[in-house]
Write the C-alpha cells for this entry.
Amino acid sequence: MARLIDGKAAALALRTEVARAVEGFVAERGLRPGLAVVIVGDHPASRAYVRTKTRMAEAAGIAARLIELPADIQTAALLERIGELDADPAVHGILVQLPLPETIDEAQVLLAVSPKKDVDGFHPANVGALFSATRPDPDRLLVPCTPLGCLHLLRQTLGAEGLRGQEAVIVGRSNIVGKPLAALLLAADCTVTVAHSRTRDLADVCRRADILVAAVGRPGLVRGSWVKPGAAVIDVGINRIEAEDGGSRLVGDVAFAEAEQVAGAITPVPGGVGPMTVACLMRNTLTAARLQSGAGG
Ligand code: GUN
C-alpha cells in the first residue's frame, strides 16, 4: 500500500515558514508584501479558489485584495485595471485567475502583468527564464505555483537527491502545469516525457514512470494498471463529480483506490497538490516583494 503524500501538512509548514519570513521582511523593510488577485466572471470553482488564495495570503501577513470583475468586461478595460495594479507600489504580486472568458485575449492579459509582479510565472519572460535556466532558483525567479508545489512534494518524498536520473512522465501539456513542471523536473535531472491526449499507448508510457504526474482534468483517467510498482504518483487533477448520494465530490485524474495498491507514494485529492499551490503563491508573493525592494533572494 502506498505512502500518502500529505500536501495539507506540507502546505501548512510552508505557509508557516513564509509567514515568519514575511514578518522578518516587514521589520527589515518597513513595508508589507501586497497581493492582488483578479477574477473575471463567476465560475464557481475559480471563485472558491481565489477566496482561498486571498484568505491564506492575509493569514500569512500579506496584504491581499480581491478584484472581482464582470464576465462581460472588454479586454481593454481589463488591461487598464491590470495596468493600475501594476503601477501601484503597494502591490507586489498580481494573479489573474484562469481560465478567462473566451471573449478576453488571454495572451495580452498575461503580458500586461510585469514580470517582477507575475506571481503565477506566466509572463513569457518568466517562462523563458525558467526554460533557459540550468538550475532555476525560485528565490530569484517567479515559477508557476502548481509545478513548484509538485516539485516540493517530490523532493520531500524522494529526498533532495532522489529525483536524479528518475524517469518522469507528466500527463498533460498545459502552460499552467505540464510544460513548466517539465522544465523543473529536467533541471532536477529527471528524464522527462510529456504525454497528452494524443499520445500513443498512453498506459505503456505511464508504466515507465518512476515519477508519474497526472494533470489533465479527466477524472480517474490514470488507472492502477498504468502505475509502475513503487512509483511516486502526483495527482494534480481536481474534478467535481456526482456522488452516489446525489451530491458531489472531488476526485483527481488518478483512480486513487487502484493506484494506491501499486504506487510507492501518492497524493490524495483533495489534500495533495491543491494546498501546495496556494502555499507556493504565498512564497512567490514574498519573493516578488523582495525582488522589487532590491532585497534579493
Ligand atoms: N487556474 C488554475 N490554476 C491556476 C493558477 O495556478 N493560477 C491562475 N492564475 N489560474 C489558475
Remarks:
- The pocket of guanine is lined by residues 95-98, 120, 145-146, 176, 277 (CB under 6 Å).
- The chain is about 40% helix and 15% strand.
